[in-house]
Amino acid sequence: MSASTPAPSTTPGPSLDPVNVLKAFASLRRLLGTYPSGHPMIAQKLHELDDLVRLHLRRGPALEIDVIDGDVRLDGVSFGGDRQANAQAVRELSDLGIDSIHIREGVEIEELRATAEFLWQFKDTASGDSLESQLARRGVHHISLARLVRLDTRWRSHQWPDAPTGPLDPAYAESLALAEQTFDTVASGRKLDAMTVRGLVELLIYRVARSNAALGQILAVKQYENLTYCHSVNVSMLSLLIGKQIGLDDGAIASLVEAALLHDIGKTKIPLDVVKKPGALEKRERKMMEAHTTFGAEILVQTEGLRPMTPIVALEHHRSVKGTGYPDLGDAIPHIMSQIVSVADIYEAITGARTYQAPTLPERACLVLARLAGEKLNSAIVKAFVNAITFFPLGSMVRTTRDEIAIVVGINPCDPLHPQLALVNASGDGPGNRIDCSARDLTGAYERHIVETVLPQGNAPDMTQFFGGSPA
Ligand SMILES: [Fe+2]
Asked: Is the pLDDT of residue 322 over 60?
């Protein structure tokens, strides 16, 4: 890791176990409900809780404990620990409908007592009065309690599949299966295997990147909601295209592909209902999501045999070229590899579907990248990317000035706005007759132009029928 890049945060020691805070709160609550207020056991437990809270607040301005499906999270990051041993303390608060306790700097010992008292008397009824104002009336201004609101996803307008459907290029299908296995391994708490990762990187570089059918499936709009492993495979392929475009050598390309493949591995530790939440995230959910960068870096730094850039890219890929973004690393500018992955990551995310939005067409996605160039993204890398994929990437479905619908099956390097096409119907099926969009009539005028990119009706077209795995 470079000198300018701080090491990812480490797991706090046992004395900073957030479960101890929950346990102390729970027993103080019970004592207050059982004994008269001046009882020495209450005073002792209150001081114990106060000491614990202050210990935490020495590390930062706030102590944020969230419980999600029995998993205790400290400042947005899963603390791990023995779930069964923690269950009693966790359940006592969850049963009240309280899943979060956030305590800020400046908290007074009396606020801790008032909160525990409030929890004893608390009835989880929808009084219309917010928890915040109920606590404020008791003089509590540095502690927030919150209920974890289960996501109501019934309003979803469209359920996108989680992975591509229909025939896939065999190498691409193999890489997706291997990536899924790799992500599942980490999600289930087992160690990442560097040898499997190496094999996958080779598969991506030597087979997937050489298949136009696979590239077509990656570059065109993706009518599925790919949140982790598919996204990662796709981002690694897009990063590779950028790397080749800017002339990286084979060693650097391998580093880039590995880093891009694992850049979001930290998301395996974030609850899926937060990752898939439609719409804006609440502040604590956002913090939790942002922790996938440090979480990923921690996982990768602990995995022997990976290339040195891999944890750095996981840490930095949401940071901008101006040194903003997350995690906060001061004004450090991200490494060029992280900057490449940032461009590929954004293109891949917006050309894919989300529960709350249809995929963005490639030409619009290029415009989004152009708008971010210079502010968030490196302008030269955005330019290289758009040059590499062109305005109408392989696999895109387009409409011509002759009202034909066609799939882009080849790029004319001297004339990227007039690519090679295969004619299809609106569903993306054959006959597949080839036309060269750059052809001109006897007067020298183009026979046709592309008017726009269109979204295929129904499932994505079967790319294998147009490319047959031919080399790029
Ligand atoms: Fe990410």
From this structure: yes
Distance between Cα 296 and ligand 1 center (Å): 9
**Contact assessment for residue 444 and residue 434, using Cβ atoms and an 8 Å cutoff:** no
Q: Interior CA angle at 190 toward 181 and 354, to 5°?
A: 50
Q: What's the average model confidence in pLDDT over 124-145?
A: 79
In the prediction, which pLDDT does 79 show? Answer: 66
Contacting residues for 93 by C-beta, under 8 A, at least 6 apart:
22, 25, 26, 67, 99, 101, 119
Span from the CA of 269 to the centroid of ligand 1 (angstroms): 12
Residues around the ion ligand 1 (C-beta < 5 A): 264
- With cut-offs at 50, 70 and 90, classify the pLDDT of residue 464: confident
CA of 342 to the centre of ligand 1 (A): 8
Quick one: pLDDT at residue 140? 93
Whether 180 and 233 have beta carbons less than 8 Å apart is answered as no
Tell me how far the alpha carbon of residue 317 lies from the centroid of ligand 1, in angstroms: 6
How far apart, in whole angstroms, are the C-alpha atoms of residue 397 and residue 352?
15
Cα 292 to averaged position of ligand 1 atoms, centre (Å) = 7
In tens, the pLDDT along 191-248 reads 999 999 999 999 999 999 988 888 888 887 777 777 778 899 999 999 999 999 999 9
pTM of the model as a whole: 0.65
